[in-house]
Batch of 3 targets.
Target 1
Amino acid sequence: MNRGRWTFQAQIICIFLLTFSVLFLVNLYMYSNMNTIIENVDKTYVGNKNLMEIRGKLDELQSCVTEYLNTRSIDSLNQFYNREEEYRELLETLNHEIIGQADLIMEKNIRNMSQSYLEVANKALNAKKERDIEGYQEYYDEVQEMFGYLVTCINSLNSTLFRNNSDTYDKLLDSVRFTEMMYSMVLMLTGFLNICLIIVLIRRITRPLLDLAQTAKEVGKGNLEVQLIESNNQTEIGIVIRAFNQMVNSLKDYIEKLRKSVEAESALRENTILMEAYLKDAQLRYLQAQINPHFLFNTLNAGAQLAMLEDADKTYRYIHKVADFFRYIVKKNDGLSTVSEEIELVDDYIYILNVRYAGEIYYQKCVEDELLNISMPGMILQPIVENCIKHGLHDITWEKKITLTVVRESDHVVISVRDNGIGMTQEQINKILSNKKPEKADREEGRGIGLDNVITRLHTFYNDKDVIEITSVGDNMGTEVAIYIPTAYKEKEHV
């Protein structure tokens, strides 16, 4: 894709994704490397860990033997048997094969001596149980001797393994430092590339803006013959430049037409009054013809883009909402719409009002997502909401609330618009539903203005008089307008 067809938003997103991808890959590599190093460290010292556990269990066994021989405590005997089983499981981790390495040979010796130690310890305990004093004393002395020798061997092997593992640990530490250095270099390189990309992007944004500002300055001085900026760029700046060029051309056309009108007025000076009337009429028609919806939308969008570029987020959103609101009105007129499009129009309308009136309207909606594509006539919900705000909430002193809900009930989709305003009398409701024009007094205090057209179109579209319902329980209790759409009308298909 040509870079000129990318919006600045897309370019910024691409830069972000590129940076994120690089950082993600670097972090993934670091994570994998660190896991490997940690696993190697664990493997390095696993032998020392096993020996420490064996030494701990050996001390517990010796303590249990000593305690039982001194006290004949059943608890000590049970603890011995439990510790013996755990000790034998730990011995299984030691080498039992004949291998030429000194540390493995020592492991095999510790394993064999431990088994001999356990046999002698069991003999001493059995002798104590049989009250063979001389026997258990002899076995106990042998146990003590074997215990001391085992402790010496375990400590010696542990020291040997620790010395051997220290060299391996130093190598792993060097690997960690190298990894840290590489990670820092990649981060610095990534940051430098980001800065370069941002500088290039900013220059692409500011250069056409500076040209546009200079041209606008000349136009502001009245020089409409200024050289217009040519731009085939499809970014936001390109849109603004083309909108500006269109505005300048429109001003030229307007001045030219105005000049011709003045010349025509001079040529027909003898009929000044009549020609002035024609001139005013021509000017009015001309101004009306200039209100081209597409030109209005493009201009509003250009203003929104300028607001966005200037970080005026609230102004950008407001202009964008106004453009969407008028675009929908011109596009839909009385045509077919969907529940989703109607709700979006209500959202935009209330947003615009809240900007104008400092957010005094609390708007709440509850919509079932599967009902959003249901078809319905266009420009239905907004007039209802406008009617609620103008005639129900206008003069109240409490918090103004509008609640919109869309739910499915049996074979109908029910769209409800509820306010917490002054409410309506049943007489007013009957006049509105019967499409009777309110009297002047009713217009001043009633709420039927704007609903006649909505009710007529609903009755005509659905051929059903019960398609709309208005309820109000009393003064200052609010009003609810409910529309019942038959589910027989299928969801609108979009191409």
Target 2
Amino acid sequence: MPKKNGQAIFSVVVALLFLALIIFVSASKFSLPILPLIFVLAPIVFIVTFINTDAALIILIFSMLLSPELKIAEVPAQAVVVRIDDILLFVIFSSWLAKTAINKELGLLRRTPLNPLIIAFILVYILSTGIGILTGHIHPLKSFFYIIKFVEYFMLYFLVTNNIRDKKQIKTFIAVFLVTCAIVCAYATTQIGVLGRTTAPFEGEEGEANTFGGYLILLFAVCIGLFLYAPSSVWRFSSAALACFIIPPFLFTLSRGSYLAFIFMYLTLVILTKKKRPLLIGILILAIFVLPAILPNRVTGRIEETFIPGKVYKPFNTRITLDESAAARVENWKHIFESWKRRPFLGYGVTGVGLVDTQYPRVLGETGIIGFWIFIWLIITILRYTFHIFNNIKDDWAQGLTLGFLAGFIGLLIHSFSANTFIIVRIMEPFWFLAAVVIMLPKIMGVPLLK
């Protein structure tokens, strides 16, 4: 057996054993304490990372959607929770730093076009939040944990970019992503007809259906991208099968923001693909004519609820009536713009504008025009580089992965109008992992750099 294949198998086996242990303890009828177990397992993960970083990253991929939450503190109006994957990421990152300190050839940070913007964004968040704490507008503990979340996503990006070596390794990671998605969808499918809305495992009784919808949009796009471009029939068949498997649990999230994002994601695939476009167009036309007749009443009813009698708005002299949930998001925008005028440059800091259930006004209110401008520049940079990689890469499989990520990213940008998409753990951990993979494709596959 080739050495690289042996390492991949070892990584997957170690990750699966660790995952099985976490799930067993989390679901145990004996109520075994999870937190003490984590402190026991943390040194093991540290050692595994030091020996084989790929195994640790695979553990992390599985844990992104398959790990429970731990409540560690109470702050006003909200509990502070962390997830097992949060702890694992910090342990893995620490071990990797120790590894780079010993082996200088590994390097601390690989240069990527996103690094300066990421660092600038973190600094603005810390500065604006620090000012908010000093002026008494922010609860220090609550804001601290939110900042840690932001830093955590970017730690993951740096960790992955520094450990990407070749296409075979990337394929292993993507296969694990697809397997994880299949497990999560299998779990969600069992909820259809039992619970009100489908959610990911360990979401609690109420769940986070909108979050689950955003995750499925990203993974569906990756599946379709691989289906369109992968030369291997195994990849094409498995990706297409998983894409079909995603649809039922996605529909029963009953997330209207996710439905809208899905449309933009799919249209991006149709417009940008250079392969099988007639097939995608045919599916789209068929869906337009068939779906209204076959969609479950709960799904169509949820869409119709958006425009039931409620609050009336008149944008561009057009009368629109929105339900309470949709109207609340519109009111969030109005509230943020009024608050932003009083602190236009750095905003109020993390959590300084209260509960805002949509991404863009939240960034504007918390970091002001400076942070918002950096955030938009970061988005544009990801779009530019991903589009450049898609148009210039010669490898079909990698081109399909890039297209899927790009379409999924555009879907998430639309999703962000109805959710805090870019601070949600179950969406952002997969997103930043995949972003790191795609951004590193030019280095490992000889794509000319964007000037």
Target 3
Amino acid sequence: MPFLILLSIIVFWIILYFVIKVAVKNAIIEAREESTNKEGYTIAKTTCPDCGEEHDIDFAKCPNCKKRLI
């Protein structure tokens, strides 16, 4: 019985891996690039829903149009 539980968990993760891989390939899920700041840390990027400009994800307001994001 524990073998079947372990096997079902492994099969679930394999299926999930391939679903995400196909979604990224077909641009259903967007793979975003990250930038590196001067300390060497990576910062994820996001796109403003109002003006469409890309900026760091940790901004509370868009640096371009000043729309509040959070």
